Amino acid sequence: MVRRSGVLLKSAATGISSRLAEILVCPLTKQPLRMCEKTNSLISDSIGVSYPIVEWIPRLVPSDGIILQSDQDLNSSDSPQTNSS
């Protein structure tokens, strides 16, 4: 059992296996989570919250979640602003 758990939890790139990521759900909405390898976190797209993975352990406590900016906010902050005066 211990050997199988280690294989299920560890992955060189992300800290958890894709199989485990498929099983986990958001603690608030119970919706599936998406794995983000860039930030090493699990993302709940339904509410825009990112849950970090620390030392191969997904931190799915709501208080550990980070609220993500909306796509519209990201797009507007990336575009140059012009003055019309």
Short summary:
It holds the Pfam family Trm112p. This protein has 85 residues and is an alpha+beta fold.
Query: SS-based structural class?
Result: alpha+beta
Shape: globular
How many β-strand runs? 5
* Percent of sequence in beta strands: 15-25%
- Report the radius of gyration as a whole number of Å: 17 Å
Bin the helical content: 25-40%
Write the H/E string, N to C: HHEEEEEH
Family: Belongs to the PREY family.
Protein name: Protein preY, mitochondrial
Organism: Salvia splendens (Scarlet sage)
Overview of the structural elements:
The structure is a single chain. This protein is an alpha+beta fold. 26% of the residues lie in helices and 20% in strands. The protein has three helices and five strands, in the order ααβββββα. The chain has helices spanning 2-9, 18-23, 71-78, and strands at residues 34-36, 41-44, 49-54, 57-58, 66-67. Strands 1, 2, 3, 4 and 5 form a five-stranded antiparallel beta sheet that branches. It is globular. The chain starts with a helix and ends in a 7-residue tail after the last helix.
